[in-house]
Known about the structure:
This protein is α/β, with parallel strands linked by helices. The chain contains 17 helices and 36 strands. The strands form 7 sheets. It has a 7-stranded parallel β-sheet. Strands 28, 29, 31, 32, 34, 35 and 36 form a 7-stranded antiparallel β-sheet that branches. Strands 10-9-8-11-13-15 form a 6-stranded parallel β-sheet, with helices on both faces. Helix 1 crosses helix 14 (368-382) and helix 10 (294-301) crosses helix 13 (349-363). Residues 394-412 and 688-692 have low confidence and may be disordered.
Amino acid sequence: MKITFLLHNAYAVGGTVRATANVAAALAAHHEVEIVSYYRTADRMPLGVAEGVRTRALVDLRPAARRTAVEAADLRSPGIVCPHDSVHAGWTPPSRLGETRLAAYLRSTDADVVIATRPYLVCFLAEHGRTDHLRVGQEYAGRDAHGPALLSDLDTAVARLDGYITLSQADERAHRTALADVRTRVTSIPVCCPEPDAEPSSGESRIVLAAGRLTPAKRYDRLVDAFAKVAAVHPDWSLRIYGRGREHHRLRHRIEELGLYNNVLLMGARTPLHPEWAKGALAVVPSSGEPSGMSVVEAMSCGLPVVSTDCDHAPREIITHGQDGLLVPDDGPVEDALADALCRLIENDAERGRMAAAARRNAERFRPEHIAAQYEALFTALRPGHGSRSSSKPTAGTGRRSRLLRLAVARLGQPVTVGCRVLPGGSLAFQLPADQPAAAGWKLVLHPRTHTVAETPHLPLEQPGTGGDGRVRAVLDTRHWELAEGDFDVLLQRGGGSRSRPVRAGLIETARLLDPAALRPADGGVRTWIPYATEDGHLAVRAWLRPAHAEVTSVRVDDEAIRLRGSLHGRTARAHHYRFVARLRADGGHLIDAPCPVDPYGDFDITLPVDVVADLHPGGEVLWDLRLSAYGGPEIRPAMVTGDLVDRQDVSVFPVVRSVGRGGEVSLRPRLTRDHDLVLRTADGRGGAAEA
C-alpha cells in the first residue's frame, strides 16, 4: 500500500524528522512510502532518506525559489488551523499558501494511509483529510507537554481520525483516559532505530554524552550541576552535550560560572549522531520528560549504558535498572542522584562493560523490522486488508535498474559519496558503497588547499570483495604517508586522467582518535589526521604535523591569573628547558615572559598573571601570540590538536577575566585559532574580548 508522512519541515534537524525518516525507511521495504514536507528550507534533507522513500515539498522557502505575487502574498498571510501550536510562533509559521497546497494535496492523494506528525498537521488532517484513506495522527511531544488550549484543539481533531499513535505506553494511557468517549484507536508504537552503520563504542574513552534540543524540558542545567560533582572526583572525565536551542547561552554561562569549561563541551548539532555516540563510555538523560526515548535507544544501539532520570515516559519503558542502565528519581536532589549514578559506572569498569553489552541486546527490539510490523498491524486493525504487504512494491529487477541508473548519473558528473573511518594508529580508510562508480584504475586524491604543499597522495581503490561487503576501499596508511599541516580536499580521479572532482562526505567515524594510545605523548610528536565534511557537504581531511608540540590539556581562568597545563610531545620537544612568552601579534613587541616548569614526564604548568598583561595592554583590541621558548632551541606554539575535533573554536570556549591596567579596565580572554593554537585577546574595558 501507499503510506504518506506529513512533516512541517523535513529539511531541518530534529527528533521528529529523524524518527519519521527511520519509520519511513522501515515501511519502504514492503510498501510505497512518501514524505511530504509542508516547507522546504534547504537543498538537501540533512538526515537523508532511504532508497525507496520519495520526498516532496509543498512550499519552497529557499532564497532562490520563485513565486507569483499572489503566492508571495499568501505566504505572508498566516495560517489559521490549530492556532495554539507553537509552530505558529516559530521561524517558519504556517501560511495561507501552505494551507492551500496541503489541502489540495490531501484532496488529490492516492495514499492509503496519511500520518501527521505534529499537532498543527494532525488538526489539518482531521479537517481536510478524506475518509477513504486512513487518517492517523502521531504524538512526539507527549500529552503533558501541551497547554490546555492546544490540548482542546488536539482532542477535537483526534476524535475525527482513524488512529492516533503515541511513543510510550504511559502517554497512550494518558490519551486513552482523556479520550475515553471517542472511537479513535489510540495505541503506542516505540521509536524505530536502525542498526548503526558506525562501529560501536569501545567503552575506553572517558566521555559522557547527552543529546537533544537545548530546551528547558531537557534539564541540561541540572546535568551541568551534576557533572560539577563528577568532575570534582574524576577531573579526567568530560561531558559532551549535542544539540541546539534557546538554552545554549544560559548553559554556557553556567558552565563558566562553575569553572567547567575544560570538562563540559557544548558540541552543537551533529548529523548523523551515531558516530558521536560511539565516542562515549556512558550516556545520560537528565530530562523532566522524555516522550520518545530516541536518544536512549540510539545510545544503547552504540553500546552505551544510559543513566536517566525516571521521568515520563519512555526511559522507564526502555531502561531496565541495573541491567542496561540506571534510573534515578526525578524529584528531590536530582543533581546528587545523577552524579552518584555516573560516578558508580565511571568507577566500575566491569559493571559498565556488562551494561554496555546488555544495552546493545535491548536495542534490538527497536529495529526496523519489528517497528514496521507494529505499524502494519495497526493499519490492518483499522481497516482489514490495508496492513498487508503490497505486491506492487518494486521488484529486485527494478531495484537493480535503479542502481544502474544511479551509476550512470554518477558517471555523468554527480558527486560520489565516500565515507571515512579512522583506524587504530590513525590511518584513514575511505570506502564507497558497492553501487558507486569505481572501475579499475580509479583513485582517490588528497589535494592540498595551499600550493606550498608539494606532495599529493594518490590512493588506488581496492575492488569489491576485499572487505567482504562489496564496498570499494582506499587506505591512507600512517606507515607510508606523511601529510603536511593543513586541509586536504578528497577528490576522485579516473586512472591516467588529470581531471578530478570532489566527493560527497558519507559516514565519518573518528572515535579511534580518542583511544588512550592516540592521546598519549609520543616520541615522534603529533601527527593527527581528522576527516570531516565541509560546509557544502564534501569530504576533506585536516592534518596536523608537529614533531615538537606542546599540547594544552586545560586552561584555568580566574581574577588573578590564566593557568595552562599540558604536556610536551616529541623527543625534540622534551630535550630543552623553556620559558613561556607572549608577544603582540601586530609588531612582536611588549614581550611577556613567565616561568614554564616541566617535570620529568614532560608535563608543564604555566601561570600568567592578568595584572601583568593588563599593564602591558597597548589599547584597543589586540591578539597576543603565545610560545614556549627554549634556550637555544625551538619555539613551540601551545595548542589543542589531539583528539577528534576538527574545529574547536566554538566548542572549547574560555571565559573573560577583567583587570585594571595603566590605561584603565582591560578584558582578557584565551581563545583558539583555526589551527587550534592558543592565543590571548585583550581589549579596552568590557568590549572586544568578551565577544571574541
